[in-house]
Amino acid sequence: MNTHAITEFFLSEDAANFSVENDDSPLAAKPLWVPIERYGNCHLALALGVGQAAIGPLMQFSSDMSMSCELRSKIDEKNAEGVSFQAFFEPHDDTSARIILFEAPMNYDKKWESNFTLNLSVLRSRCGNLGLRCFSSSGRADLESKLAVVKWVAGPNDRISLLTARRHRSRRIKTTLERFNVAYDHEMFANRKADDEREDASSFTLLEKVSSGPKRKSEDPITAEFLLNLPSAKVAEGDDVYHYAHRVLQSLIPIQPPNFPKRIHSVHQRENRPVRILSLCSGAAAMERRMVANAGCPVEITLFDLNEKLMRKAGALLSPIAETSGVLGDVNALSVEQFGDMTFDVVMFVSGLHHVVDIEHVLQTVAELLVPNGEFWIIGEAVGRNGNQLWPEALAAANRIFSLLPERFRRNAFTGNIDSTVPETDFSANSFEGIRSEEIELLLLRYFDPIKMWRRNCFLWRLVNQVYSRNYDLKNQGDRCIVLSLVAAEYNLWKSGGRPTESHSVYRRR
Ligand SMILES: C[S@@+](CC[C@H](N)C(=O)[O-])C[C@H]1O[C@@H](n2cnc3c(N)ncnc32)[C@H](O)[C@@H]1O
Q1: How far, in Å, from the CA of 382 to the mean position of ligand 1?
Q2: What residues form DSSP beta bridges with 348?
Q3: Closest Cα to atom 27, ligand 1: which residue?
């Protein structure tokens, strides 16, 4: 790993983090920025003449990175034949050759453009420079045609949109200042005029001029020792490591998760009839059974799943406490007709929505199946990164604490090996696990309004699930302290902006 190498890059006229080189000269050329008209807007682009290449900074690559480009031509139509562009990787070590990542001809057509995103996982663990090159296959270097680079960003996949938005900062600030200097002069804002006239600038001090005061002390991170004294850290009868760790985590989160049994009970009190519930991807309905039992009121529950064996099991468990029926089918093809005339007070997924491919269709159908003001619940739902993977900041934090653990806590129950890092598994590669989980929360907002959201678990579940849970003995105080240090690391990351992957939330039909 090269310590000078960076992991993200964006091309901008504000930064000197790239160079322009001529094929036939070792000297760097001065970057030429040109205005480009695109769909009625004027963009600033880096122009590369035939025989020129733009070389990005030295970068260290990992499997999770991509490069996104928008290119246009500034073509001399008479001479454009044979002009192409190339995206390439120049390895840092002189022993290996340049890798051509992508190459395409630029047409005669004045409107030529190319937008593309390249998956850079082929460069994982490598160090070097990315480049964009304009060249002529006929070897003629005197052509006037130019490649206009409107966008060129590279970095971790989940930072591409951020990096894209960071370009042209000074230009954007300038137009923002210009625009808002006059925006409120419009007659629409006439009532602001009186306030403006009262303005007395002399009593106002810019903050940067008085920044010598004491620095705000940020909250100290919590530690395993602190957790050890919490009532939730006492081991209860029948606790396993997964539930123990998550109970302690829950006790740290200032708001409580939705009380689902209580919500069922209030529907019953309001409507004065059995509460009608539909559970999608209900499986063995273990959670559903507990909820209905705790609600303490009459319930009619309909189960929906692909798996007949699990449904029969769920039916046998639920029938003694609720009026139970079942529909076998693929939830992706869910339809109102499958339920006759029935509508429901509550439709829920308990850890099932992250298996769904046609989320839009399913949510739309759920909205139709609900009574007006009916509620849609997701319980223990995986709403993190696709494939139930960890987000980069969570993976880094998980690995930081994991690498400090003695070997016996890093034994992988499935492989028998001692892991040095948390496995980066994409569970969707061969299944529907987390097939579109990144999109779930945004799509929900198209059809429902959130009433109560409770989200947690940036990475903790990956360190205390079946892969490692057998390595711990909760009766042993040392083992308990290790579990609590995992909980503390999880909480500290969550507190400072780590993205949760688990949601227990209530949404209402519009
Ligand atoms: C994690 S389990 C649900 C757990 C269950 N709610 C409980 O508390 O015991 C996921 C369930 O989704 C079901 N499932 C997965 N894909 C499905 C699909 N396309 N259509 C219907 N059910 C599906 C599986 O059969 C499985 O029973």
Answers
A1: 13
A2: 279, 377
A3: 283
- Among the atoms of ligand 1, which is closest to the Cα of residue 307? 25
CATH homologous superfamily, domain 9-170: Galactose-binding domain-like (2.60.120.260)
Amino acid at 195: D
C-alpha of residue 455 to centroid of ligand 1, in Å: 21
Domains 9-170 and 241-509 share a fold: no
455-464 pLDDT, tens digit each: 999 999 999 9
Q: How many CB atoms lie within 10 A of CB 269?
A: 9
To test the pocket of ligand 1, the residue of 282, 362, 432 to mutate (highest count of ligand atoms within 8 Å of its CB) is: 282
- Please report which confidence band the pLDDT of residue 13 belongs to, taking 50, 70 and 90 as the band edges: very high
Q: Is the CB of 286 under 6 A from ligand 1?
A: yes
pTM beyond 0.70: yes
Q: Is 299 in the pocket of ligand 1 (CB under 6 A)?
A: no
Q: Is the CB of 350 under 6 A from ligand 1?
A: yes
Contacts of 163 (CB under 8 A, 6+ apart): 8, 9, 10, 153, 154, 155
In DSSP terms, which residues pair with 151 in a beta bridge?
70
**Closest Cα to atom 2 of ligand 1:** 283
Mean pLDDT over 79-99 rounds to: 85
Each residue of 149-169: pLDDT tens digit? 999 999 999 899 989 999 999
- Token pair in block for residue 452: 């109560």
CATH label, 241-509, candidates 3.90.226.10, 1.20.1250.20, 3.40.50.300, 3.40.50.150: 3.40.50.150
Alpha-carbon distance of 286 to 414, in angstroms, equals: 25
Q: Of 260, 306, 328, which is best to mutate to test ligand 1, by the most ligand atoms within 8 angstroms of its C-beta?
A: 306
Angstrom distance (rounded) from CA 147 to CA 73: 5
For residue 108, the one-letter residue type is: Y
pLDDT, residue 12, reads 95
CB atoms inside a 10 Å sphere around CB 94: 7
For residue 296, the CA-to-ligand 1 centroid distance in Å is: 25
Q: Write out the DSSP string of 21-70.
A: EETTEEEEEPPEEEEEEETTEEEEEEEEETTEEEEEEEEE--TTEEEEEE
Give Cα 431 to chain centroid, integer Å.
20
Ligand 1 center–CA 307 separation, angstroms: 8
CA–centroid distance, 199 to ligand 1, in Å, is 63
